[in-house]
Design a protein that fits this description.
single chain; 320 residues; mainly alpha; Recoverin, domain 1; Actin-binding Protein, T-fimbrin, domain 1; 3 domains; 0% strand; globular; disordered C terminus; CH_dom_sf; CH_dom
Amino acid sequence: MSGFVGVVVSDPSLQGQFTQVELRSLKAKFVSLKRDSGHVTTKNLPGLMKKLRGLNEVVSEEEIAAFLSESYPDSDHEIEFESFLREYLNLQAQVSAKEGGAGGGRGGKPSFLKSSITTLLHNLNQAEKSSYVAHINTYLREDPFLKKYLPIEPSGNQLFDLIRDGVLLCKLINVAVPGTIDERAINKKRVLNPWERNENHTLCLNSAKAIGCTVVNIGTQDLVEGRPHLVLGLISQIIKIQLLADLNLKKTPQLVELFDDSKDIDEVLSLSPEKMLLRWMNHHLKKAGYKKTVNNFSSDVKSIPLKLHWTPRIRTKGQN
């Protein structure tokens, strides 16, 4: 007599987050929703997720919809069961984190999905995406395979759609660190089957890790689905590695401006590329009359006074 199999999830780490009782219950609810609609899209999920354990008393359907829109801007995006499980876990984690933080509590509604914050995140993602699209269009526009798809339009979801077959990310990794991936190993047919697509994404993630990217929270399925926040996070790391790789005296002789005297040479050359870039930026800000020191590329560069000093410097350098 054969043993009981139960609900099987292809990702063992995902399956380990649930008991078989929970998986059967969630699968039944998901299948019921699919039976009613023919397929399940992100706009179908808020009503279902609102009733699930850990969410039914603390978030509204509107807040769940806002959360899902960060990963799936298209509300008609079709969702598979495993993606549904991941979003359920992600939402539970967000709720738990907020309830455990300052000002949180069982009685209060979490504020992490308020519309103003969601709008801000959306705007930040749009600006981030536009800069990455411009970079990709510049460096890959002459690629024999990709040039028929480029330039990418910054608005809309063309970037995430193009990511799904894995070719673009593999090509971008080779731009960042030439020769990392043997081009012959990339599946580049016009239409790829799921197995070929998964091969490309596995190659991409292994190669990204090899050049120094952190990919611990990214799986091949995330890239197949073109999940925006994970895709943008990976592209950001790849581009950063590319840009910082050129930060040395041989490729960027302008760095000689950082040396006040010969004693500074060893000190500057011993800096990491990121710290060297910060020093170069502070050097030009000081020349422009900016008094403060920039210590990072996140909170410090959001300063309006800094932008007023820095933007003209960028324009001048670009014109020259």
